[in-house]
Each structure stands twice: as structure tokens, then as C-alpha cells.
Amino acid sequence: MTTAPSTFHVPLPETLVELLGKRVIDLPTAELDRGLLREDVSAACQRVLAESPEAQIVVRRCRDLLNDPHGDGFAVIEAGPLLDRYGLDDGQKAAIVLLSWLGTPLRAFDKWPLWKPLGTNLTIDPMRATGSGYNPLHIDIVNATEPPDYSALLCVRPDPRGEGYSIVSRLRPAVDRLSDGERTLLAERVFSDGAFYELTGVGKEYNPFPVLDGLPVPEGFVRFTAKMLPDMDPEDPHTSAVRALERELIAEQKKFLLGFGDLIVVNQHLSVHGREALGHGQEEVPEERRRLLWQMFLRAAGTEAR
Question: Which long-range contacts (CB under 8 A, 24 or more apart) does 66-72 make?
């Protein structure tokens, strides 16, 4: 395991922070069309991008980090100055503008707004996204025919105990290091994970699914989630193949702490993500002070609502 270097961090120039603060006041409400940010709202965000050379440089840097098939498939945008200067409400709107430059914001979960809060709940399975324990490597909404192209998490409140490192690992090189027999097993449609309901913009339920779908990188996914392992038969060779892939991913994973306002974006065609356990003594931390992230998904530019 290595700690991600600062080259994955993308700072926002002061002039861009000022511009976003001015423009979010007049931007239309972030309304949705079948789960995706409405076209007229996206167009308004693109007009902000067009007037700012600094914004265009930031976008090029993010796209280089996110979409290089030989890269790590993630970027951490330092959006803290937006939240510091404009507060959580307008800072949240400005972050939507930033993300709209990289793809089309997608809600996915019908019961939540565009930003889904991920707090820290000590009464649920610690392995879940809002739990306090180890959240193993995975892609989000793995059991859909069309998982989100990108997953985004904005850190509103870091773990006050100083833990909860984010983890990211490259999928394709890990698959390449497997044996032919393991890859054959992972290509079979026998894997299952979770329920599928109240979702929009991610296609249909795909359960069971293959881990390896055989499609080229821009369209295909390595449908990996270590969360399915506890329910798998330990004697099944498919389980051994999944564990082999998990070992390869863990061996090369990068870890880093998200600070206030850090916005991590992960290309789900290239990488998996997760989180190490939060610090000990969470029960002594008031709920309103525990770790809090906001989650959003993105569709690749040009994708229609479905």
C-alpha cells in the first residue's frame, strides 16, 4: 500500500473561487430529468466554464487524472475554499458546477436529493458506507446494467479521530496479474450483491453479474465489490477468484485522508474505492461532529437519461 502523492490533488485558483461564488447566485436550481441534471442547468454551468481560462485548466487536469487508461483513475479537487467562503449551501452549488464540467451529475437513488449525505451511524453494519468500520474496495451500484461512470464524494466533516483513510486501487492492472483460470471464473455471470430498488439513471437490475464483462475500458466495468465475499461459499472456486482479485487490489491500493472540502472523483471504469475504519472512540463523539460526506454520481458527457 502507498500513500497517494500530492499530484492527485487539484487546487482551485483564487480567481476561479471568486468566479464560482459570483455565478452560483444566478444559476438555475439544480433540477433533474430522469435522475440527471437537467440540460438547461448543465448548459448554464458550461457557460461559466467557457468564460474562465483557469476553470478550463482545472478541467483538463482533472480529466487527465481521471481518464488516462494507464493512470490511477481518480482526482481530489481541493474545494475547501468554496465551502469556507460561501458556506455549505452555496459551496454545495459551486461543487455541482465543478462536477458538471467533468460529466453530467446523476442522483441514482430516488429517495435522496442530488447530494446524498453519508454520515456516521454506529448502529448499522460497520462495513456499510455510513458505518464506522472498514468499507472494502468496490464500485458503486455494481448490480446495475449501467453503473455510474464516476463516483464523487465531498468531505464536509473529516473524522475527528483522524482516521477513515480513503482507499483507491486500479482495477485493470490487478486483473492482468490474475491467472487465466481466475479470469475465466470471473467472466462467468454468477456473482450477486445487494438489492436493486428506487434507482434511476443506471439501467436495469443486473444480478447475477460477471465481474469481467469483456468490454473495452471506456464502456466496460470490472464489477468488483469485496462486500459480496461474506455471503459467498468459501469452497466455491469463484470465491477464490474474487479473493485473488481483492488481494491484488489491496497490494497496490493508495490511501489518503480527505480534508474539509476535498472532493474525490473516481472513474469507475478504471478504479475501485473504499475506506479504512474510523478512529476508535466514535461513541464518544456527538453525532453532529462525526465524519460526514456528500455523495454524487456522474455520467460521462453526452450520455442520455434512461
Answer: 66/102, 66/150, 66/265, 66/267, 66/270, 67/267, 67/270, 69/172, 69/217, 69/270, 71/270, 72/4, 72/8, 72/168, 72/170, 72/254, 72/270, 72/271
- Helix, strand, coil fractions of the chain, as percent rounded to 5: 35, 20, 45
231: CB partners within 8 A, 6+ apart:
192
- The alpha carbon of residue 67 and the mean position of all alpha carbons in its chain are separated, in whole angstroms, by 14
Residue 136: DSSP 8-state: E
Q: Are 301 and 184 in contact (CB under 8 A)?
A: no
CB atoms within 10 A of CB 125: 12
Q: How many residues does the chain have?
A: 306
* DSSP string covering 221-277: -B--BGGGGGGS-TTSHHHHHHHHHHHHHHHH-EEE---TTEEEEEETTTEEEEEPP
Residue burial 49-79, b: 16+ Cβ < 10 Å; e: rest: eeebeebeebbeebbebbbeeebbbbbbbeb
Q: For the chain (length 306 residues), average pLDDT per consecutive 10?
A: 73 97 94 96 97 97 96 97 96 97 97 96 91 97 97 98 98 98 98 94 97 93 97 97 98 97 98 98 96 98 58
Determine contact, residues 171/271, Cβ cutoff 8 Å: yes
Place of cell 459570483: 22
Residue 283 DSSP symbol: G
